[in-house]
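Quick check before the chapter quiz. The format below is the same one you will see on the exam, so make sure you can read both the input and the output lines.
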Amino acid sequence: MNPGGDFGKKELSPALNNRFTSIWVPTIDDDAELEAILTSRLDPPYRLLTTKLLSFWKFYEQHVAFSARQVLSIRDLLTWIQFINTTGAEVGPPVSYVHGAHVAFIDGIGLGVGVSEEVRMFANFLECI
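Here is the expected output.
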């Protein structure tokens, strides 16, 4: 189970939780490990996007995550990769990269009225890639 702080989740009651063994898995932040995950999940024609995905990840974590109040997870990256793998043959890697980012991240953070300058900077960064 994901922690109760995740959207749409509740903590298990103590009585139910005592019946399970809890294993805490820390967030992956090692570049080599992230690169290995991305490379293994991206279809071969799209593996050239690995460095762009990693640079996006780093930029987002350093400049946007706090303002947007949304931390990226491996699940978000995997959603983005699945979108690239599914649509890349039809629209090409650059277009599937940008649209995948919109699907996986931008829709979730609600860019628009009332966002900080850092979040707007993130949107401009994404459009330049």
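If your answer matched, good. The chain has a mean pLDDT of 79.
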